[in-house]
Amino acid sequence: MVTVYGADSCEDTQRALRHLRRLGVRYSYQDVDRDPMALGKAIALNDGERRTPTIDVDGTTLVEPTTLRLTGALEERLLISREAADRVMRMKNVGDLERGLRVGGGLLALGLAIRMKSAWRWPLAAWGAMETVTGAVGSCPVYRTFGVTSVAGPGDHPREAERRSWVAPLRARAHQPVNVPEIGL
């Protein structure tokens, strides 16, 4: 069982919820701004401080975790296998902002290609179609081939980015050891 104590206005909370959804992990969301009992539980888990998100992963408490740390805790508690997490992250390797840019740019290229009379018409149409499809599904075969992702970078949600580079190696995430301290009650 995964319980997220967070706030709708918190960028870290939104990033954690989006990551759980991408991984297909079921969770319960408790909004500390709307539920005084959830706020009390979050404060109790944080030694008297209000910090969001606070995530209870089957008895392990994570405070403002990175996506890497959250994934590691899910793997340690056997809520998702490393292989399943890696498969999802390989397939969903295009961040949300980049997805919008790809769809918009692809549709623009398709629109221009329709009006063109030159030899560049079909290559532009093919490129536009590829960009539109990869943006719509959130998966780029070129990124997969090179083992990179724009998820969790500024190509995902710029204010919530965990790194400054647009793309990063995907395999680095899969092989980093994760130490998740337990906080008892």
Structural topology:
Layout: E1 2-6, H1 11-23, E2 28-31, H2 36-45, E3 54-57, E4 60-63, H3 67-76, H4 82-91, H5 96-115, H6 121-137, H7 141-146, E5 148-149, E6 168-169, H8 171-175
Parallel strand pairs: 1-2
Antiparallel strand pairs: 1-3, 3-4, 5-6
Descriptive account of the structure:
The chain is an alpha+beta fold and 185 residues long. It folds into two domains: 2-90, Glutaredoxin (3-Layer(aba) Sandwich); 92-173, no CATH class. The protein contains eight helices and six strands; from the N terminus they run E-H-E-H-E-E-H-H-H-H-H-E-E-H. The protein has helices at residues 11-23, 36-45, 67-76, 82-91, 96-115, 121-137, 141-146, 171-175; strands at 2-6, 28-31, 54-57, 60-63, 148-149, 168-169. The strands form two sheets. The protein has a four-stranded mixed sheet with strand order 2-1-3-4, sandwiched between helices. The protein has a two-stranded antiparallel ribbon with strand order 5-6. A hairpin with a 2-residue loop joins strand 3 (54-57) and strand 4 (60-63). The radius of gyration is 19 Å and the shape is elongated.
Label this structure with key terms.
185 residues; alpha+beta; Glutaredoxin; four-stranded mixed sheet; two-stranded antiparallel ribbon; 8 helices; 6 strands; 11% strand; disordered C terminus
**CATH class categorisation of the largest domain:** Alpha Beta
Number of distinct beta strands: 6
Number of domains: 2
Taking pLDDT < 50 over at least 5 consecutive residues as the criterion, the unreliable ranges are: 172-185
CATH superfamily caption of the largest domain: Glutaredoxin
The appropriate CATH architecture of the largest domain is 3-Layer(aba) Sandwich
In CATH terms, what is the fold-level topology of the largest domain? Glutaredoxin
